[in-house]
Amino acid sequence: MSEHTLAVSDSTFEADVLKASGLVLVDFWAEWCGPCKMIGPALEEIGKDFAGKVTVAKVNIDENPATPTAYGVRSIPTLMLVRDGKVVETKVGALPKSQLKAWVEGAL
Fold this sequence. Notes:
The active site is at residues 33, 36. The chain is of the alpha/beta class. It has helices at 13-18, 34-49, 66-70, 97-107; strands at 5-7, 23-29, 54-60, 78-83, 86-92.
């Protein structure tokens, strides 16, 4: 992870995502997932571009199986926008940065 993304685990998900102030973009990913690696740099840039407005949280599904199971994640990458502890929108699959940015801007 970098200064613009936050590694989140099953044990920290509630504090880091559900109780966070503002909008949180949660990326459910895995090391072996090609599309996850493709969108990684775009998510880094979104974290930088929206610093202070949006938190980009990354959950490695192999290391943290409870959270993706609880949220019904069936394929990756799965991206969720969370506000005030509730999932407001979900997207599945790799999207270009322009679409990801527009999706986040629409939720702000």
